[in-house]
Amino acid sequence: MKKTDLYKKLGLKIDDKLKQAATPERFGQGGALDRKGQRKLDQAKGLIPFAVKLDAQLAKELRELSLTRGTDMNQLVDELLRKGLAI
Questions:
Q1: Distance CA 11, CA 19 (A)
Q2: Does 67 or 31 have the greater pLDDT score?
Q3: Mean pLDDT, residues 37-52 taken together
Q4: Which positions ≥6 away from 63 have C-beta within 8 Å?
Q5: Is the pLDDT score of 45 beyond 60?
Q6: CB neighbours (10 Å) of residue 59?
Q7: Which helix or strand (DSSP H or E) is residue 20 part of?
Q8: What is the pTM of this model?
Q9: Which end of the chain is more exposed for a tag (fewer CB within 10 A), N or C?
């Protein structure tokens, strides 16, 4: 067996070990919840999913406004809808 073949085989062994290894604990601490966990938290807050289709330009403006205010998109849309319905 050639020396390059040995290095290839060693590289394949390392790749296999990395694929089978679990995620280190430090990466899992305080991380995002899975979808099921997030859904339960949203339900506890009384939130439901509500999908709409918007014009691309309007969606872009909403994203920019959300970034300038430092809030997430859900809070921004909630605020704007409440103001719009109050009229």
A1: 12
A2: 67
A3: 89
A4: 73
A5: yes
A6: 13
A7: helix 3-20
A8: 0.54
A9: C
